[in-house]
Amino acid sequence: MCDDYTAEAEEEALRKRGLSRREFTALGAAAALAGCAGANGTAADGGELVERTVQVTTSDGVADAFFVHPAQGAHPGVILWPDIAGLRDVFKIMARRLASQGYAVLAVNQYYRNAPAPVLGAFSEWRTPEGREKIAPMREAITPSATTRDAKAFVAYLDQQQSVDKARGIGSNGYCMGGPFTVRTAAAAPGRVRAAASFHGAGLVAEGDDSPHELLDDTQAAYLFAIARNDDEKSPDHKTILRQAADAAGVPAEIEVYPADHGWCVADSPAYDATQAERAWSAMMRLFDGL
What we know:
The chain is α/β, with parallel strands linked by helices. It is built from 12 helices and 8 strands.
């Protein structure tokens, strides 16, 4: 998870690049991913993408989200859960890239109960005292039951859209704190959510019956658990527990510790590793092929 332990790895990564946190932030996530397919609003087949900010009614209020999909046809829906810094430009870029591959992507603001997105402009803001103070009460509002309620609403929203193919399954991908939310999404709508990808997910294995790993038996999805090496160093038994839980539930699960640190998939994170991020992205695309 994004704690002092992972912050040390981030500082080391920046030192190797010869950058301060301020200099890295100034580079911007958009520049880091400018060459990605779909980042400019074009689908892989040359068609256009359509994007807009939408409002999704949940049992707790109205959530804002970024919805992007190919202009033509109906496609599998995907719910994208951002990391601890929330929905911001880097996740919109990632949503566009995924949409360019033929998906209708709903990138959600998990902090909607407190504020519209963006709550923070970049991951670096989370590392400041002001950023942590701002996020702290917002995180407290996101309980396991709240996430489950939200997931049901997001699935229902996608199923109301003409751009979503209801004959295909829905996928979910999540990063950092969003990682376990993908499992909760699969458990919230087991008849619809058929694939879930967690990248450097925090809290996948916890105490209690509502731990994400305990919910696998309540799902019908295939999984990708891409684990950061420093998360694995801190909790080396979690990958084994996830494997045992997936096998006991009879659900397919690809579980791998990547040679990269927590946050490696997100371009505005100091731990971003382009090579390993592409490997993880390719693994996700193989998983979503089954939707």
